[in-house]
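Protein modeling request. Please complete all fields; requests missing the sequence field cannot be processed.
Requester role: graduate student
Desired output: 3D structure, token encoding
Chains: 1
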Amino acid sequence: MRAMWFRWRWRWLITVVLLFTVGIVWFVIITRPTEPMGKLLIERQENNNALFYAYDFPSKRMNIIAYKVTKAIDVAFKISLSADGNRAAFLGASGNINQIYIADKLFNAVRPISSEPRDFQPQLSPDGSVIVFMRSKNYFSALFTVDVETGVEHQLTEYTNDLEADWSPDGRRIVFTTLRDGFQELYTMTTDGSDRKRLTNNEKLNDLYAQYSPSGKWIAYMTNYSVGDGTGEIWLMDADGHHQRRLTQNQLDDRWPM
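Delivered output (258 residues):
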């Protein structure tokens, strides 16, 4: 009887020790800070020129990304990455010429992709196959797309000061800002420029810089009475324009929701 009591006691002690050890290991693993294994793409201001750097998490080092193009770029900025990170679109400026560039495999292959000298605001589609961008001409702007593989461009809108395009997560629609109604309003359209739907209708207010949520269910955007007047506010609405509601309300300038 006494031997059985000792065996039960030792089993209980061993069980407690094992549970305590597992608990300690679990606590250390769960609470220990972890680091990503990939790289962080950084736009760095240096000598008045924006250069691209890659921060490597395992080595904790930041190295300049050397990219070669047939024509020199004075400034490169406004990066848009594909979902898998293997492709980047960015704006390259040389003198008075602004073009959209495409970079594959972390800048191993860089080439200009747009054809005019006043192209801005590149945004890669979720699958990285198409870029939507703004083209400026005679003080007006329109939205275009360009196929990454073929370089074929397609004009989506007229020159009615359309800008700030963003893709829906499924790649089927584009939300954008337009001045065609007098004040800046938000519209969506399909990727060929058809089926345009007006989302906002706020007289005397500018609605701009719309961004889809990752689910595609909502669109965040900002409003103000005149650009830069210090009264920007952040709003949210359903992707079809319904249930518009204000998220911030102050005398500060709240901008650029993501």
